Amino acid sequence: MQVTLSNTDYTVDAQSAKNMVNVGSYAIKLTKSGIDKVKAANPKMSFTDIANTSGTYTINKADAVITVDDAAFNYDAQSHSIPVGNVHVTGVVSGEALDYTLTANSRTDIGTQIVTISLGEGTVNNNYSITATDTAELTINPTLLLPSTGGIGLLPFVFLGMIFIFSGFFYFIHRKKKAGEQR
């Protein structure tokens, strides 16, 4: 039979361990009110060794994984880094945050560099077996440069280009025709 105990029905080896949320082992002992609740819930049982009312409550490390995705930007003379949205943390209890940083996570010049995950020493990290071996590439790509149009837009230059193409085509046809007449 299951017995529901309140925090006055047992004692824990350390007063600060009442919450028992961090990794570790905690000695727990029933109080008189706790023993009375166990007896009341089991009236047909004989409790001959009621002096042994202690046990150990153990919290083991949970598994957590941190991964990071690549990021690429076009060159604009500004410093760029892998966005927070590219980092994925799984296995962590809701409301807790692991302590980590991304190393070498800033680039301005064209090229690629490897970004790694570095774990901090925060208290929350001590409650997890953290896998953070993933790396990502931070890339700055060259920008496509278009010729300056002096503010008049690109359309006049496209139009002129088409005129030159058609002119060349008609010149080629006309020249081919003349070459055929001379034979």
TrEMBL record:
Pfam families, per database record: MBG
Keyword Transmembrane applies: yes
Residues in MBG domain copies: 4-61
Domain of life: Bacteria
Keyword hit for Transferase: no
Stretches that traverse the bilayer: 152-173
Keyword annotations of the record: Membrane, Transmembrane, Transmembrane helix
Protein's recorded name: LPXTG-motif protein cell wall anchor domain protein
